[in-house]
């Protein structure tokens, strides 16, 4: 343990077996190590956040993810596809609250082809000066398949229509045996990574996420992190990593007990230790609550993520935390840091 601790403190990269072994370590030791790395990478006592809104343009989805309480079949009573007028209303509310970005995601709709997405992106860009952080890797892979296009062609057309960056959603756990069980209709690991690699090569920045605390093992979590790390070595296109916990209520996996704060903080700290080439780690106060979000700032996180003017997917599981900007700033200041607004590229605004 001592040798590995020294290795981590010296900034040396750790391997798979060493990373897996960290899950046996005590929480406070991991927090100390992660915090030392965070301080080395971010010397200024600053914690960033962004003012944006999650807009889910449709909840109609063919993926059938067992962990999701948000999706609906086409024709369901509460299935929807937002009109452009409804989009406008949400964007105008966002801008009025000081928002600079929308996180635009939806289900894998069986009927929508690339032209719909081009029209939607062009409409938004034609009417509003706002950054579009949208369309996760599984959505892009689905659009490509539905439209008979390559992933390259699809991303190029979406970029031309106004897509600015891509969120890391749909990664869940990047291990196919897990994906086949929990998200049978979603793209496989290699496709998720391919979408991100192509986007990075086109100059499109993205984030990466990990949803854990369901059927995966510690080894699977580490495998996920190592795949992200390897792609980052190649492209340097990820701006941040966001690990968040599975919320079981109202899902097909509701027999699984939700991960507690200690397990979340341990995994967060290990992600900061393993992902030595990802500049920013985001706290998941949306699933853990504001107080654990605050504690996350001492377990490797340097970013509090989005103000979440609107959030629907986690809320569908019955977990709903809300923060106003003054509350977000208070949490950061109360922890001894300086709050700073940012954009998707982590440039201060």
What does this entry look like structurally?
The protein is built from 14 helices and nine strands. Helix 6 (137-147) crosses helix 7. The strands form three sheets. Strands 8-1-9 form a three-stranded parallel β-sheet, with helices on one face. The chain has one domain (25-341): TIM Barrel. Residues 313-321 have low confidence and may be disordered. It is of the alpha/beta class and 349 residues long.
CATH topology: TIM Barrel
CATH architecture: Alpha-Beta Barrel
Query: Which stretches are low in confidence, meaning pLDDT under 50 for 5 or more residues running?
Result: 313-321
Q: How many DSSP helices?
A: 14
CATH superfamily label: Aldolase class I
Query: Which bin fits the share of residues in helices?
Result: 40-55%
What is the tally of beta strands? Answer: 9
What is the end-to-end distance? 42 Å
Strand content: 5-15%
Shape: globular
Order of helix and strand elements from N to C terminus: HHHEEHEHEHHHHEHEHEHHEHE
User: What's the number of structural domains?
Assistant: 1
């Amino acid at each position: 343990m001592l040798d590995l601790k020294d290795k981590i403190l010296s900034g040396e990269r750790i391997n798979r077996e060493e990373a897996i072994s960290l899950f046996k370590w005590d929480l406070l030791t991991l927090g100390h190590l992660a915090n030392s790395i965070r301080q080395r990478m971010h010397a200024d006592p600053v914690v960033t956040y962004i003012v944006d809104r999650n807009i889910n343009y449709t909840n109609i989805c063919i993926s059938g993810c067992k962990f999701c309480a948000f999706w609906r079949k086409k024709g369901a009573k509460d299935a929807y596809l937002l009109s452009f007028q409804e989009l406008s209303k949400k964007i105008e509310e966002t801008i009025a609250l000081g928002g600079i970005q929308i996180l635009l995601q939806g289900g894998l709709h069986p009927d929508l082809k690339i032209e719909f997405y081009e029209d939607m992106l062009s409409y938004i860009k034609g009417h509003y000066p706002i950054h579009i952080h949208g369309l996760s890797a599984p959505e892009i892979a689905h659009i490509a398949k539905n439209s008979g296009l390559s992933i390259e062609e699809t991303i190029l057309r979406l970029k031309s229509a106004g897509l600015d960056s891509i969120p890391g959603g749909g990664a869940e756990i990047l291990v196919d045996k897990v994906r086949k069980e929990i998200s049978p209709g979603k793209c496989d690991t290699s496709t998720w990574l391919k979408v991100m690699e192509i986007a990075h090569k086109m100059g499109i920045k993205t984030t990466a996420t990990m949803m854990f605390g369901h059927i995966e093992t510690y080894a699977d979590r580490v495998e996920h992190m190592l795949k992200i790390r390897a792609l980052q070595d190649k492209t340097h296109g990820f701006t941040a990593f966001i690990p968040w916990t599975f919320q079981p209520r109202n899902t097909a996996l509701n027999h699984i007990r939700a991960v507690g704060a200690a397990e979340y903080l341990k995994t967060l700290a290990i992600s900061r230790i393993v992902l030595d080439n990802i500049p920013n780690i985001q706290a998941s106060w949306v699933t853990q609550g504001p107080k654990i979000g605050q504690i996350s700032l001492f377990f490797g996180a340097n970013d509090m993520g989005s103000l979440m003017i609107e959030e629907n997917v986690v809320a569908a599981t019955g977990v709903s935390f809300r923060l106003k900007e003054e509350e977000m700033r208070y949490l950061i200041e109360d922890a001894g840091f300086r709050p700073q607004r940012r954009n998707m590229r982590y440039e201060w605004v």
